[in-house]
Design brief:
The complex is a heterodimer of chains A (824) and B (162). Chain A contains 21 helices and 31 strands. In chain A, the strands form seven sheets. Chain A has a seven-stranded mixed beta sheet, with helices on both faces. The chains are: A alpha+beta (824), B alpha+beta (162).
């Protein structure tokens, strides 16, 4: 059992570059390296890949939520001119195994449904043809005889499903994918002693990353070497890409995965397997390169990347001094038809399950259920965004029921700045933080008291203006060790989550950094360039960034979980240490001085205390590459100037038990959002009058791109709060499968300005003190907006327990509240 | 399927192709002409990633048949500046972080090209109104508005960049 509180003998970190040094490049608003190619239409996205003699694939999608496939009549499709192959689930099963699954026991998912379909949109037949148009024509000629089975759409029904309604009968007699009970700390005792117990029932609806680019792959198979080459807009290919080879029933050395620019992911492309396996299957079957790109309906119905879909029954124990002591919840999560990451999105939440508060104990009962829907994947926050919503909603409920001040109650319960590093009941560690500082900055920036006055004035005019507040955590840099405790039987049990960088300085002094994970719309080239420029004093214009495929890839886990900036900063810093050593060795011979008497200054290496005695890195590079005989025959002076470095997680420990997960997600960012909204009570429309977002992600490599993440993440969070919801009817039919019906924020849905404040509390464990910032906006905006809407409608007593707060839902709540008060 | 001959001017250059009448303009531009800067997002005219100018008017190329462009002129993102010589609009997007993944960006640039031709001096509200046509999933739009404002300053010569 992990006891909550300050850790008095904190683990030693591996930080080499401190946060309190003077920096030249890090911290500047350098324009992005990535942008010029995107601005001129020269990015390389998956559909931009065209190989000679390439064929095109399209999938016949299941129209049923749940059905047996009795027979497939494909002769008419095969006879259509231009059709090359028509591949059914049975055909595919001869060539491929199940798709990767990180739950144990695994849940079998096939790239093409085998015997049974389990959700609308699941591929039933893959057609490969000369063009995509012909492939889609052929799909129209295929006749599938289905025997419909009972569809499960409601998560509560799933718990009690029996017989033909069970999606995976080989796993058990019902649709419960997993049921676990976790106890962290003295939960029962704290609730027994509590002066107040606050309860709420909450509903977080299914939404998703929904990037503008869908998922896709272009694969070829070389008969000569029996090797696949697969371009795919996935991440994590240098981490778990070998599982794609396993699905193709070949060795991992027989698959080369090549990254491309991703047109957005927001988690949904964290690890794409189905599109890669489908394209590769088609390529091997036809002997031609095959492109398979999801269309929008494929993407919405079958991308394997929907977000969390949960109901919570949550209770908060509070003592007589209004201190929160324990949190207890039962959550049911609708995972859809498969279970690729197991309970990963709940393990993630355990990293910060007490939020910024000194809650001493946590109990969590989790039901993960199967329904006939697209399966869950990752979505900005990876489940912790829902944990944040749950915590902040129950905090607001306490404020409401006990008549407390929302600011003071939060402040009184915050972990204090001097209590870090702080261990939470799950065993995870918070590295550093200043939560009252963030709150104060937000209050001041918003002019909180001024808005309270304006709110009162508005109320006298019959207007509903509300001020929201949410103080939330943004966990950064996962170690994935929590997965040890999520599977009943040992499953995805590893302890590595590294990231690598390879740097080559060529003979003319120009540098190429190779990264081992893709460009995802984040700014990896900018970050890596800035860190290298900082380290060696190179001109950023003399640095380029390339992306390794799996043939050349070093260990790399990729962007996700707000880790990538921290990790490549560590990897580039580590590679630079190797380069510096070599540069000094070579330069010491050139300058006839001992390596210890040398220093780096502005892209040069010079003798300490002798300002004229120096050589440029370019001069050293030339010597190192081309003039081997000028130097002693020492193995440390081999030709060339390059370094590979693999940076391991900066601070993680082995998990101890399922009541103490150890340190697994410790680089803890923090946000405080304060939106001001106005609700039109007649229409249920919510509009923004102001929005302040204070973020603390430690040292910022580039404040411009951090601002971009904050604004973009907040916009997505506003979408989650007010608009977005993948809806299914009771028969499992999806109701909004295009962008007309699945509504995402346009500029008119958003505040005219999100006013950003940066607080900088560096991490003592990462290089330069950097923390993650990629997910924060979406992790805090939903509870902040729910709070603001509730505050606006306080005269009516409306409670916001369910997201999204669409106009129709809000109107229903207002009608109900007015009826209760006798208002018509 | 029988093919038709079309003559389409793309970025000032004439192209003659025999195509199926059902071929979409977005596919014609991307896969027949090979200009892959124009992107396809939603495929039903909602997101605007595929926006090009057809005879100067912003058009969803994913919902337009290539034969509808016969005898007409198409402008795509590739008609703007090059990496070594960005146009003021592209430069504004670079300066003000008006893009992240870059996928919606070509559509945004063409939409704003149309706006700035109509009105070389739009205020923030005018820019916001026009931006409501297209969807960006990364930026939250605010930096795109600032990017267009920056482009206006660059075009007026009020602002000079390195």
């Amino acid at each position: 059992m992990a006891e909550a509180g300050k850790i008095h003998s904190p683990p030693a970190g591996r930080q080499k570059e401190r946060s309190d040094q003077r920096l030249n490049v890090i911290g500047t608003r350098m324009l992005r390296k990535e942008d010029p190619r995107f601005l001129t239409g020269r990015g390389r996205f998956i559909d931009d890949i065209a190989l000679p003699h390439m064929a095109h694939a399209a999938a016949l999608r299941s129209p049923h939520a749940h059905a047996r496939i009795k027979s497939i009549e494909k002769t008419a499709a095969q006879a259509l001119p231009g059709v090359i192959a028509v591949i059914t689930g049975e055909d595919a099963a001869k060539e491929t195994g199940p798709l990767p699954c990180f739950a144990n026991p695994p849940v079998e998912q096939r790239c093409i449904a085998l015997g049974k379909v389990r959700h609308v949109g699941e591929p039933v037949v893959l057609v490969v043809a000369d063009t995509r148009y012909i492939a889609e024509d052929a799909i129209g000629l295929i006749k599938v005889d289905y025997e419909p089975l009972p569809a499960v759409s409601d998560m509560m029904d799933a718990i009690n499903s029996r017989g033909d309604a069970v999606l995976h009968p080989e796993r058990g007699p019902d649709n419960v994918a997993e049921h676990r009970n976790y106890v962290f700390g003295p939960v029962e005792a704290e609730f027994a002693q509590a002066a107040h117990v606050i309860k709420r029932h909450l509903r977080w609806s299914r939404s998703g990353g929904q990037p503008i680019e869908t998922c896709g792959a272009v694969a070829s198979f070389d008969e000569g070497s029996e090797k696949f080459t697969i371009y795919v807009n996935s991440s994590m290919y240098n981490y778990i890409g070998f599982t794609i080879a396993a699905a193709l029933k070949v060795g991992s050395h027989q698959v080369n995965l090549i990254p491309v620019d991703a047109g957005g992911s927001f988690g949904s492309k964290l690890f794409l397997h189905k599109v890669a396996v489908l394209a590769a299957l088609g390529a091997r079957a036809t002997g031609q390169p095959v492109k398979y790109i999801e269309d929008r309906i494929d993407n919405i119905t079958a991308c394997d990347g929907h977000g969390s879909d949960r109901t919570y029954d949550v209770e908060l124990a509070i003592d007589a001094d209004h201190k929160m002591t324990a949190l207890r919840y039962k959550v049911v999560d609708d995972y859809g038809a498969y279970f690729q990451f197991g309970l990963g999105t709940h393990g993630n939440g355990f990293s910060q399950t007490v939020g910024p508060y000194k809650i001493r104990a946590v109990g969590a009962e989790i039901y993960a259920v199967f329904t006939n829907k697209c399966q869950q994947g990752a979505c900005r926050g990876f489940g912790s965004e829902v944990t944040n919503f749950m915590i902040e909603r129950i905090v607001d409920a306490a404020v409401d029921e006990l008549g407390l001040d929302p600011i003071k109650f939060r402040r009184d319960n915050f972990i204090a700045p001097e209590e870090f590093p702080y261990q939470i009941p799950t065993g995870n560690l918070y590295d550093s933080g200043n939560y009252p500082g963030a709150l104060d900055m937000a209050l001041q920036m918003l002019d909180y008291d001024g808005w309270r006055e304006k709110q009162n004035a508005a109320r006298t005019q019959g207007r509903y203006v509300g001020i929201g507040v949410a103080s939330c955590q943004e966990k950064g840099v996962f170690s994935a060790t929590e997965f040890w405790m999520l599977n009943r039987a040992p499953g995805f049990a590893l302890t590595s989550s590294p990231e690598s960088a390879s740097i080559k300085i060529d003979a003319t002094g120009k540098a190429i950094i190779s990264l081992h994970a893709p460009c995802w719309g984040n700014s990896p080239e900018t970050v890596a360039t800035m860190v290298l420029a900082e380290q060696l004093g190179l001109d950023p214009a003399d640095i380029n960034v390339a992306y390794s495929d799996t043939d050349h890839g070093l260990p790399g886990t990729g962007p996700g979980g707000s880790r990538y900036t921290v990790m490549i900063t560590g990897a580039v810093t580590g590679a630079c240490a190797i380069l510096k050593e070599k540069l000094k060795r070579v330069a010491s011979h050139m300058l006839e001085a001992g390596p210890h008497d040398l220093e780096f200054r502005n892209g040069k290496i010079g003798v300490k205390g002798a300002s004229g005695l120096e050589v440029s890195i370019a001069e050293v590079a030339t010597q190192s590459h081309f003039f081997r005989l000028s130097f002693p025959d020492d193995p440390d002076l081999t030709s060339g100037l390059d370094a590979n470095y693999t940076y391991d997680h900066p601070l993680a420990t082995l998990p101890k038990s399922d009541s103490d997960f150890g340190i697994f997600y410790p680089i803890m960012g923090h946000m405080c959002h304060m939106p001001v909204v106005e609700v039109d009570a007649k229409t249920g429309q919510v509009s923004f009058l102001d929005y302040v977002a204070v973020h603390d992600c430690g040292t910022m490599i580039n404040p411009m791109t951090v601002d971009g993440h904050v604004r973009g993440g907040t916009a997505q969070g506003i979408g989650t709060a007010l608009l977005e919801h993948y809806q299914y009817d009771k028969d499992g039919q999806p109701l909004n499968i295009n962008f007309t019906d699945y509504v995402m924020p346009r500029i008119g849905n958003l505040p005219p300005q999100v006013r950003i404040g940066h607080l900088v509390t560096p991490s003592p464990y990462t290089e330069y003190g950097v923390k993650g910032a990629g997910e924060g906006g979406r992790m805090v905006a939903p509870p902040a907006i729910a709070c603001a809407i509730e505050d606006a409608l306080r005269p009516l007593g409306v409670r916001i327990d369910t997201l999204p707060v669409t106009p129709s839902r809000l109107r229903a709540l207002i009608r109900e509240a007015e009826a209760k008060k006798g208002i018509r | 399927m029988s093919e038709l001959e079309v003559n389409v001017t793309v970025n000032g250059r004439p192209f003659r192709r025999r195509i199926e009448p059902r071929l979409l303009l977005s596919d014609f531009i991307r896969h027949e002409i090979g200009l892959t800067g124009t992107h396809v997002g939603c495929e039903n005219g909602v997101c605007g990633a595929c926006t090009v100018l057809l005879d100067g008017l912003s058009t969803r190329s994913c919902c337009t048949l290539a034969v509808q462009a016969d005898g007409r002129s198409v402008e795509t993102v590739e008609s703007l500046g090059r990496v070594s010589n960005l146009s003021p609009l592209q430069r504004g997007f670079w300066e003000k972080h008006g893009l992240q993944c870059g996928y919606c960006t070509p559509g945004m640039l063409m939409l704003m090209t149309e706006l700035l031709r109509e009105n070389p001096n739009p205020d923030r509200e005018t820019i916001r109104l026009r931006l409501n046509d297209n969807i960006c999933r990364c930026t939250g739009y605010e930096d795109i508005v600032s990017s267009v404002e920056c482009a206006v300053e660059l075009m007026r010569g009020d602002k000079v960049v390195r």
